[in-house]
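User: Predict the complex with acetoacetyl-coenzyme A.
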Amino acid sequence: MNIGIDKIGFYTSPFFVDLSELANARGVDPNKYLIGIGQKKQAVIPPSQDVVTMAANAADSMLSKEDKKKIDLIIFGTETGVDNSKSAAIYIQSLLGISNNARAFEIKQACYGGTAGVQMAIDHIRSHPDSKVLVLAADIARYGLKTPGEVTQGGGAISMLISKDPRILAINTSSTFFSKNIMDFWRPIQKKEAIVDGHYSTDIYIDFFLKTWSRYQKLYGQNLNNFKAIIFHLPFSKMGKKALNALFAKESGQYDLEIKRNFDFSKIYSSLVGNLYTGSLYLSLVSLLANSNSLKKGDQIGLFSYGSGAQGEFYTGKIQSSVPNLQLKNNVESLLNSRTKLSVPNYEKIYRDGIRADSENIDYDISSDHSKYVLSGRKQNQLKYLKQK
Ligand code: CAA
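Assistant: Here is the predicted structure with acetoacetyl-coenzyme A placed in the model:
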């Protein structure tokens, strides 16, 4: 039985900051951000959006009434949860009107939570073939104003419907993973911004990629010729390029060209949004499906997921639909093109508003956020979510 991603949706904030302007404000050569890091624009998440509203906005138009009845498992991967106890998945269930006969919970392992959700969903469908699983992967990446990590911030959400006979990507059962207690990036419970050892984290990322790839080759007898594309978790788009270069330094051949070309297609949207943490690998998938000019049904792709702390996983799947997926492309690009550019001082203000100590009662300004789902405020410590249209 083929099991995998049947539908995929994406949402990000209606606001962004231009990274050339940020570079100028920080006294840095813009080419460092544009070429050295590989990022052009960065999503800025206003207080009226959190991981719940972003995930609801990503999933809303993707789900039919029939899907909502059939979903019996909602898994929410995030490291930016909205409550220390209650899961974001329960909020999603009620906002989207999904059946109450469902399990709903949240999982966390830095940027790996979404992949844990996908793999768990596949196992669930294997034993309950007629059900569907909603996997959500949403985060807000914050390192702090004027820090080296600032250029790699961002945020947004991916939603995926996992089912049998998937129409997008059939996921193979073969997968390799590696985990180890490493302090490359973490966020203590009292902090809204991550602590990161940036250069160490990039080295560990590459190390975990090469380890899981080598084990995959060994266990499943595959080599690069079996792949048309390899896509990555992209904390910044240069990270994936570094990982691919490390792979090509070990193995090279004619396949390099197509894999390189498809990597370029997979990074387009990340470079305009920034790091989604756990949704980032799946934004690479969206970008590949929407833009590749060489993939066809049946082609095999590899996916590398990395969550600091650290967990890596390499798994594979077969394309099920025609590529480029023009509907997906239109949806994503109309969302990205309708965003409002913020000046650097306005970005800094919104950033500070997003991390200030939260009071028990607060109303957020939602007048310039026309997203379907918004967070309008907090009353007696309860989050107030609003459906606007
Ligand atoms: N023109 C072109 N390129 C330039 C340039 C210029 N004028 N000036 C510098 N560069 C290049 C540098 O040569 C360098 O390229 P290489 O990496 O290919 O050598 C690149 O720009 C970056 O320069 P620096 O290394 O000097 O940058 P930095 O020290 O200021 O910080 C960073 C870069 C470490 C990525 C930092 O932004 C950071 O800490 N980010 C957060 C951590 C992160 O994203 N880690 C990724 C792995 S962890 C993970 O994946 C989990 C997760 O999501 C966080």
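The chain has 13 helices and 17 strands.
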